[in-house]
């Protein structure tokens, strides 16, 4: 059983698939099966929540003499317009 | 033959006009060089050799024909010359030069283009050959399936970036860093290599680096066919995905990268998981969970049901009930059987009784009595009948006798004479002697008489 707070999406998904495999074992103890089922549903819900809010954030790495800074795409576009990259 | 003879004749007839070697070679030079200013020649390279002065010599051949060719050191095409080799088919641009000194004609090559395989292919083959070990699939790093942060090395003005962002927008919880570089033209590969290096050094939390650009001409793609690209990418700690232009051709960049995608769009689709897809998958998992649990539950239910049946079949009350029922049944049957048996016996007894009754002595006596009575009656009647019969007969006989009785005859006047006392009927006179006594029977009374005479 994995705690939700520290759970990464990837490990949740892995666990979901693992649970599926475990449930496929038809000889499974009923109580255990129900526990697994509940855990699986909880994890699915967790993943769904995470996915529903999934957004992409875009930033552009700009390099100058002082080092790197991150800019929005629009701003980087303006800044680089003359540079032609 | 005829022509030959004509020539022979004309040769002999003519004055002997001749050229000096110098003259004719000069003429040839003029002829050739004027006739063929700048021209393309297609042929196969043979007998390729590099001279110390930097010139390259080779023969352009085609079947039985051959032409000597030179690439002067000053005109060496930097791009192609390293890939020239015997057997390579080329299209060469140049000029035909005749050298009177040696009496030879040379094709002075200014440009050469490989035929069949393109130049990039040649470069690629050479590089692949050189760095064979680096392209080993086992060397390739795995691409994280669920990245959180990726770096895009591409032109900020290119269509590739737009294509990539279009697909990746809100596809996944993802941070995309764009490292702007030039993706074509002289030195572009150096910028790309620098980007990979910088990302490895300063942005090492990035899950993968994607180098991408759209399709283009071979010249456009040239930076991706360079040795710099190989050397720059091979040491990246972060997995590198290459999605450079062409669908069909694999660039060197594609080959050295840990993963190759055909186009920028394909890269976005393949490398960034789709939340829609995962959501769909999760739905599917949930469905499967339900199905599996149902199977397990129904299996449990079945077992429970079976156990219940089994238990019920062993329920003491039921067992008792069943036994009771059986006992009842048996006892009922027993009663029935008993009754049947008894009635049978009773019947038999009755039969015997009847039989016995029939054979009872009283019965016999009664029967005997009856028989006796019967016979008695019969006897009585028989006797009676007999007597009656006899009486009647007697009567008849009496009547007959009466009719036949001598007395009757006597009545008619006859008499019977009998000896006396003997009583013998006398039928003849001879039987009687004188003096004998005779008894005469008359119809009424008798007479005792004495014989006095006998007359015969």
From TrEMBL, chain A:
Query: What does the sequence similarity comment in the record state about its family?
Result: Belongs to the XseB family.
- Please give the function described in this protein's UniProt entry: Bidirectionally degrades single-stranded DNA into large acid-insoluble oligonucleotides, which are then degraded further into small acid-soluble oligonucleotides.
The compartments listed are: Cytoplasm
A single Pfam family it belongs to is: Exonuc_VII_S
Q: Is this entry keyworded Lipid biosynthesis?
A: no
Which keywords does this chain's UniProt record carry? Answer: Coiled coil, Cytoplasm, Exonuclease, Hydrolase, Nuclease
Annotated catalysed reactions: Exonucleolytic cleavage in either 5'- to 3'- or 3'- to 5'-direction to yield nucleoside 5'-phosphates
MF terms (GO), sorted A to Z: exodeoxyribonuclease VII activity
Question: What gene name does this entry carry?
Answer: xseB
| Coiled coil (UniProt feature) | 6-40
Name of the protein described by the UniProt record: Exodeoxyribonuclease 7 small subunit
What assembly does the database describe for this protein?
Answer: Heterooligomer composed of large and small subunits.
Q: Does the keyword Transmembrane apply?
A: no
GO terms classed as biological process? DNA catabolic process
Listed GO cellular component terms?
cytosol; exodeoxyribonuclease VII complex
Family matches, as HAMAP family: Exonuc_7_S (MF_00337)
């Amino acid at each position: 059983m994995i705690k939700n707070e520290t759970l990464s999406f990837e490990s949740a998904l892995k666990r979901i698939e693992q649970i599926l495999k475990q449930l496929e074992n038809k000889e499974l103890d009923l109580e255990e099966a129900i526990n697994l089922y509940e855990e699986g549903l909880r994890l699915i819900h967790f993943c769904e929540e995470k996915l529903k809010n999934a957004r992409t954030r875009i930033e552009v790495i700009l390099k100058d003499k002082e080092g790197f800074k991150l800019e929005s795409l629009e701003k980087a576009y303006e800044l680089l317009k003359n540079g032609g990259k | 033959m005829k022509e030959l003879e004509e020539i022979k004749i004309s040769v002999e007839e003519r004055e002997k006009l001749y050229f000096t070697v110098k003259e004719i070679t000069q003429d040839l030079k003029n002829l050739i060089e004027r006739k063929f200013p700048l021209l393309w020649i297609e042929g196969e390279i043979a007998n390729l050799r590099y001279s110390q002065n930097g010139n390259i010599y080779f023969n352009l051949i085609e079947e039985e024909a051959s032409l000597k060719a030179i690439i002067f050191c000053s005109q060496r095409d930097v791009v192609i010359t390293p890939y020239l080799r015997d057997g390579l088919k080329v299209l060469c641009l140049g000029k035909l030069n005749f050298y009177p000194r040696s009496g030879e004609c040379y094709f002075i090559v200014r440009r050469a283009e490989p035929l069949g395989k393109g130049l990039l292919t040649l470069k690629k083959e050479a590089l692949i050959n050189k760095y064979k070990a680096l392209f080993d699939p086992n060397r390739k790093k795995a691409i994280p399936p669920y990245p959180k942060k990726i770096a895009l090395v591409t032109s900020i003005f290119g269509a590739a970036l737009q294509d990539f962002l279009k697909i990746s927008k809100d596809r996944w919880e993802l941070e995309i860093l764009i490292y702007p570089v030039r993706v074509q033209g002289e030195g572009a590969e150096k910028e790309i290599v620098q980007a990979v290096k910088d990302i490895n050094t300063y942005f090492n939390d990035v899950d993968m680096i994607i180098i991408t650009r759209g399709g283009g001409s071979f010249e456009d793609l040239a930076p991706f066919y360079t040795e710099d690209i190989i050397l720059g990418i091979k040491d990246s700690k972060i997995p590198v995905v290459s999605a450079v232009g062409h669908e069909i051709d694999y660039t060197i960049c594609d080959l050295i990268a840990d993963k190759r995608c055909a186009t920028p769009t394909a890269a976005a689709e393949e490398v960034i998981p789709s939340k829609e897809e995962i959501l769909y998958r999760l739905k599917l998992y949930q469905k499967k969970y339900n199905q599996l649990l149902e199977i397990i539950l129904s299996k449990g239910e079945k077992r429970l049901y079976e156990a219940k049946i089994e238990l019920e079949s062993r329920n003491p009350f039921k067992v008792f009930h069943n036994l009771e029922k059986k006992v009842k049944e048996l006892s009922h049957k027993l009663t029935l059987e008993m009754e049947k048996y008894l009635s049978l016996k009773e019947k038999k007894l009755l039969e015997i009784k009847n039989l016995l009754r029939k054979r009872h002595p009283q019965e016999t006596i009664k029967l005997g009595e009856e028989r006796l009575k019967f016979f008695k009656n019969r006897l009585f009647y028989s006797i009676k009948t007999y007597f009656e019969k006899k009486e009647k007969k007697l009567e008849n006989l009496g009547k007959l006798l009466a009719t036949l009785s001598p007395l009757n005859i006597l009545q008619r006047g006859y008499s019977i004479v009998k000896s006396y006392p003997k009583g013998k009927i006398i039928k003849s006179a001879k039987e009687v002697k004188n003096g004998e006594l005779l008894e005469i029977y008359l119809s009424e009374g008798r007479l005792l008489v004495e014989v006095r005479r006998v007359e015969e």
